[in-house]
């Protein structure tokens, strides 16, 4: 049989100071371990907004290029609607070479065309070969100035899915956007057409 004093001593049992300190140390070590494992993962994970911004810039530029003409002649050429081959044009969109060289060459045809110029803009797919700009120039939004975009164009006819077409009849358009530790590359294709070809 327990006396009243023994009962109250039994009911007042609790955690000692040493036990509490040991518990806090164990929990702290566990939390530090968890943070040290998840910290690098969080730091190295891509920010979805950054990827979306890079993708939006790339899509915008690729769509702009794909909507340009790709006929035998430049749209400003007098024979643009009737030409069925390059020699019939004063301004041939083939640019006269087997491939599109490094940025800045070949120059747009006719000379003096620039992207976004109201009076004399780029008006055919080939004009964009080697084009480079920052994201704010492409979109008009100053907050995207730390992204850079570049365009490369190559001939891909005569092989793969385009084996039945001449080498210069199909252009592959690659738009690459870099910025804020993110890179996006979009690819599109454009097949030449003759607006008033017979048949």
Commentary on this structure:
The chain is an alpha+beta fold and 199 residues long. It has one domain (48-191). 30% of the residues lie in helices and 16% in strands. It is built from four helices and four strands; from the N terminus they run H-H-H-E-H-E-E-E. It has helices at residues 4-11, 17-44, 48-66, 135-139, and strands spanning 132-134, 148-155, 170-179, 182-191. Strands 1-2-3-4 form a four-stranded antiparallel β-sheet. Strand 3 and strand 4 form a beta hairpin.
Per-chain topology:
Elements: H1 4-11, H2 17-44, H3 48-66, E1 132-134, H4 135-139, E2 148-155, E3 170-179, E4 182-191
Antiparallel strand pairs: 1-2, 2-3, 3-4
What's the helical proportion of residues? 25-40%
Would you identify the regions where 5 or more consecutive residues have pLDDT less than 50?
none
Q: Would you tell me the overall average pLDDT?
A: 81
Listing every helix as H and every strand as E from the N terminus to the C terminus, the arrangement reads HHHEHEEE
- Number-wise, the strands total 4
Distance between the termini: 114 Å
Task: Give me the Rg, rounded.
Answer: 32 Å
Global structural class: alpha+beta
Tally of distinct domains: 1
Major sheet characteristics: 4 strands, antiparallel
Apparent shape: rod-shaped
Portion in strands: 15-25%
């Amino acid at each position: 049989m327990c006396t009243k004093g023994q009962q109250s001593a039994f009911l007042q049992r609790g955690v000692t100071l040493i036990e509490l300190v040991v518990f806090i140390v164990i929990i702290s070590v566990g939390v530090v371990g968890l943070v040290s494992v998840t910290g690098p993962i969080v730091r190295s994970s891509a920010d979805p907004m950054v990827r979306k911004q890079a993708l939006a810039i790339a899509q915008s530029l690729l769509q702009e290029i794909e909507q340009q003409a790709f006929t035998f002649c430049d749209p400003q050429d007098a024979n643009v609607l009737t030409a069925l081959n390059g020699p019939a044009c004063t301004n041939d969109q083939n640019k006269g070479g087997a491939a599109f060289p490094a940025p800045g060459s070949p120059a747009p045809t006719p000379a003096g065309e620039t992207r976004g110029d109201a009076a004399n803009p780029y008006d055919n797919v080939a004009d964009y070969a080697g084009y480079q700009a920052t994201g704010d120039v492409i979109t008009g939004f100053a907050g995207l100035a730390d992204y850079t975009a570049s365009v490369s164009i190559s001939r891909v006819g005569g092989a793969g899915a385009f084996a039945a077409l001449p080498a210069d009849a199909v252009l592959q358009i690659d738009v690459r956007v870099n910025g804020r530790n993110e890179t996006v590359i979009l690819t599109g294709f454009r097949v030449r057409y003759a607006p008033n070809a017979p048949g």
